[in-house]
């Protein structure tokens, strides 16, 4: 399971709840998901999401290409392992761009990634665009 945060987010804090009164933290990807799916390997993917004023298609493509390359490296030992992606906001747009890159390329480097995807969860992804996206 790979989780991508959204615009102006953080690889870890975006998925975390913090109670300022009790100072307790709950990061559901770490604290709950492994209990529910014990065989899952859960990772977060971080990128420079502080780009509110510059979210051009070229930049999105660069984010998507970097994501694919890093994911390919991480999955080198087991490229056929099933893959579930959770993406919030701009993270969802990066995932969509990554799929487009693979679909419009003769390069086969990313085939194992795309073929291993068993599901994608989009959370608040502006599929139709939005202010600043």
Give structural notes:
- This protein is an alpha/beta fold and 133 residues long.
- Helix content is 35%, strand content 20%.
- Strands 4-1-5-6 form a four-stranded parallel β-sheet. Strands 2-3 form a two-stranded antiparallel sheet.
- The protein is globular, with a radius of gyration of 15 Å.
- The two termini are 25 Å apart.
- 22% of the residues are buried.
- The mean pLDDT is 89.
Cα end-to-end separation: 25 Å
- Helix content, binned percent: 25-40%
Instruction: Please state roughly what percent of the residues sit in beta strands, choosing from under 5%, 5-15%, 15-25%, 25-35%, 35-45% or over 45%.
Output: 15-25%
Q: Radius of gyration over alpha carbons?
A: 15 Å
Average pLDDT score: 89
Major beta-sheet overview:
4 strands, parallel
Strand element count: 6
Order of helices and strands: EEEHHEHEHHE
Quick structural summary:
The chain is of the alpha/beta class. It is globular. 35% of the residues lie in helices and 20% in strands.
